[in-house]
Request: fold
Amino acid sequence: MRKNKKLSDMPIEVRVEKAMQQAVAKAIAENKRLGSPLAIWQDEKVVHVPPEELEVRETKRNYKTVKKNK
Reply:
């Protein structure tokens, strides 16, 4: 069984990676919402991805369920 750790208990490199993933997801969603192309680095050059080709994915979230007593 895996327990969720507090963010403050995680190593700094894990926290940095999570923050970067959230920032990238936010940037992709914002560019798609605004209808702006997204500039990425691909094959050693800058490529502009049109907003209609951007895929917005929901980031993982930690949800807790509460059991209700009947």
Summary: The beta strands are 38-42, 45-49. The longest strand covers residues 38-42.
